[in-house]
Design brief:
With 153 residues, the chain is mainly α. Helices cover 47% and strands 6% of the residues.
Length: 153
């Protein structure tokens, strides 16, 4: 691999849509690897673009950084991951995505009457949440489907 096969931070940021600060963060977190030039500048292999696309997809469906790290650790070292490698990693997302789709459909179908917050601001909420009983279920939008209320770390 020659120097022309390596990308600068700016090139990776431009190609991936991630800010340079995000690239440095993911490198510190062990999700990306970079080499250094004699002048100390970071250089990334082109395959980092696939890793970044994976990270974006994983974060968008709600995987935590720990889950992303564990998934990326399963990738082979010393070669660019193949389509089969990525398919194997993403297979476990299917049920999670199905749950999120169902939760989003439930939210969409109820938006004209209630968004699940327990706020008592709508007449329907006053019926669904008399005397603010939702407060006993905790903070936040307690009536939202569970996949939409979980913290994303």
């Amino acid at each position: 691999m020659g120097p022309d096969d390596l990308l600068s931070v700016g090139e990776v940021a431009h190609r991936s849509g991630f800010a340079a600060s995000a690239l440095r963060f993911y490198e510190r977190e062990g999700l990306l690897a970079a080499t250094r030039t004699a002048g100390g500048q970071r250089r990334y292999e082109r395959s980092v673009l696939r890793r970044l696309a994976f990270i974006r997809a994983a974060r968008n469906i709600g995987l935590s950084l720990e889950e992303v790290r564990a998934a990326l650790a399963r990738l082979p070292g010393g070669r660019t991951p193949t389509k089969a490698d990525w398919a194997s990693l993403s297979r476990s997302w299917r049920s999670r995505l199905d749950d999120q789709i169902a939760a989003l459909e439930a939210l969409r179908d109820g938006l004209d009457t209630c968004i699940g917050c327990g706020c008592l601001s709508l007449k329907r909420c006053a019926i669904s949440n008399p005397h603010d009983v939702a407060a006993g279920r905790g903070a936040g939008a307690v009536y939202l489907p569970r996949p939409l209320t979980e913290d994303v770390r």
